[in-house]
Amino acid sequence: MWMRSLAHLCGLHKQQTPGDGVTQFLRSNPDFLDRFVMEEIELEQLERWIIRRSQKMKKKHEQKNDRKISLSKWKFCVHADKRKMLQDLTTSLEKQPTKDEVLWELASCISSAVDADGFQLILIENADLSRTSIFKGNIKTSLKASKAVIAYVIDKLESVRVSYHQMDSRFPNGSFKDGEEYHVMCQPVVSNGKLAAILELWKIKGKQPFHEEDEEIGMSYLVWGGIALHYADLYFSMNQQKKLNDFLLDVVKSIFQDMISIDKLVKKIMNFAQKLVDADRASLFLVDTKNNQLYATIFDVGLDEEERVEATSKEIRFPLGIGIAGIVATTGEILNISDAYSDVRFNRSIDQLTGYKTDTILCMPIYIQGRIIGVVQMVNKHTGMFTKEDQDAFEMFAIYCGLALHHAQLYDQIKKSEQKYRVALEVLSYHNTCNEEEFKEALGNGIPEKIIGVDDYYFNPFGLKDNEKAKHAIYMFIDLFGLTRFDKNSLIRFTLTVRKNYRRVPYHNWTHGFSVANSMYTIIKHSNNIFSLNESLALYIGALCHDLDHRGKTNKFMLDTASPLANIYSTSTMEHHHFNQTVTILQQEGHNIFSKLSSTEYKEVLDLLKHCILATDLALFFNNKDRLSKILSEDNFSWHNQDHRLLIQAIAMTGSDLSASAKPWEVQVKTVDIIFQEFYDQGDEEKKNGRTPLPMMDRNQTNHQPASQVGFLTGICSPCYTLLHQLIPETKSLLDMCHENLRRWKDIDDNIKEKREAR
Length: 759
Description:
Blueprint: H1 2-10, H2 18-28, H3 30-40, H4 43-63, H5 80-95, H6 99-113, E1 118-124, E2 132-135, H7 147-156, E3 160-163, E4 181-191, E5 194-204, H8 212-258, H9 262-276, E6 279-288, E7 293-296, E8 300-303, E9 307-310, E10 316-319, H10 323-331, E11 335-337, H11 349-354, E12 361-368, E13 371-381, H12 388-430, H13 436-445, H14 466-481, H15 488-500, H16 510-526, H17 533-545, H18 555-560, H19 564-568, H20 573-587, H21 599-614, H22 618-633, H23 642-657, H24 665-688, H25 705-727, H26 732-758
Antiparallel strand pairs: 1-2, 1-5, 3-4, 4-5, 6-7, 6-8, 6-13, 7-10, 8-9, 11-12, 12-13
EC number: 3.1.4.-
Organism: Nicrophorus vespilloides (Boreal carrion beetle)
InterPro entries: GAF, GAF-like_dom_sf, HD/PDEase_dom, PDEase, PDEase_catalytic_dom, PDEase_catalytic_dom_sf, PDEase_CS
């Protein structure tokens, strides 16, 4: 249009070309050209002319090896308001000088300058197309261009402009993915000579394609942006180094000045590590070399508005070599994983346990003196994937973690040894071994060859004196195992010392220990050799010793009152103590009843013995019950499966421990009365300490006894004896009497309720 107008003004003849006349006229009338351009030409067209002229000049300079073409020409290639964009960008970066902010602001400016309908930043780690993530696009979606286009930009570090309707020889398999976007421009974002990201911009159908001048505008912004990215990287590195230095000073202070515990140090390490790499969660697992496992009690740290540490009272344990952390602990390899669920090494059980979804992982070993003592695992970086910079900072951090953990472990060992020493003094002040006089008296009295009725499930332990119970316990051992592989004198000393190591508390005393051993003896005796010799040894001795040195208080009471035992054993407190007391007695001179076993047999019996004694912790019963019930319901139980055998051993221990609930009514009532005496004693102690005891432990609320027994027999005893009967049918007597006692307690409880309602 404007060309025709100029031709008319110039009075061109038909035989003349418009170009010749127009050029002659404009050269002769520069004022007219200036006025015409300013009044008639669109600003966008002017910009395109200037870009094209700049590019021609740039090519001429390149041919002459003259690289003095500068950004001064670029200022004419943008609208006046783009200068304000840069001013706003500079102000924003002064407040938040991070690499992500630079990239985001640059992309926003370029998108606006070239009139794009949308954009997204594609972060590519180490020029690897398989490790990409979309960052902060104004429409979060997948790639618009094909991977071939992205790969080309990565390889050539050149901009690419493609349109849906145009074929491009560089991309014979197509340059687009299906979608509404019709024109795409991809530009590399380079910082310090390395590819930082790819900016992908798009326009929808109906709009003009991206032109060469759009590409020039984008590249002009990116020239400045590269400088900004460089300084953002410097700022980030300096800030990270400062944080790292501050933490290392804190670590040194913790080691040589504060001497904090391992748990407190683990919290410090995890909180800092999470901030160091901008992770959402942090876990630290320590190596248990004895059991070839990784474990953690503080396994998950997250930061909200304030620092928050989530800890669990239950240990998380899993074998070395399992999951990402297990593999790192085994190989010492640093693992940086961009998609956890697509990695076959990832163990999903922790996610299932915590209800948390893991996406990205950075996992690193912690060394001390050349050996791996732990693994730190960062989960879900807030923006994109964990980078090489994260890995480098984390690696230095891990070195000091090893030093700190090593000293903290030494400190914990010292504290634990101190607590053990206090417990030992306490035990020694109360207990001692059987003396020579007691041993000779028992030896002189002899052991009967036959005791009638001792193998009856309904045997009454209250009819025997303490010395007679010891004699019966020795008899039951000999009846089950003989004396071919066992020393009689050691057996007598062991049994008499076990009797002495039961405290004189109302319920958890020698009578209870003997009664549980008697019930286990009866189960083994009538079970047709389903248990091996070593299993039977562990079950019987475990039953006899399962409550050694019991103080008449629950595990919770021990934890609440911060007893020395609770400081040593945080879980199954009393049960661990009972096992250790058993081992202590075995180690005394003349008491080792297992001395004639081979070293392999001895280790197996001790392992089984610990398993059996710990199984008497009712807190463990419910998990054992659920697991065994599921196996039986699916008809998968096998006596050849070691895990299945351990489960039935645990259930047999619980059944023996609770055997008073399956004794005749007279024995049951007497036992319940004794149990509540012990409960009330604990309740009195809790009141003295300013705590409110449970109703069943409050001697002023005796009417709760029948109801508590109904709940106890219904929820624990009956399911226990049902499982036992399913696998050992000979124990039916226990199940029957348990149900009979439950019926009687229900009747009493119903009468109490009726009287209460009648008032």
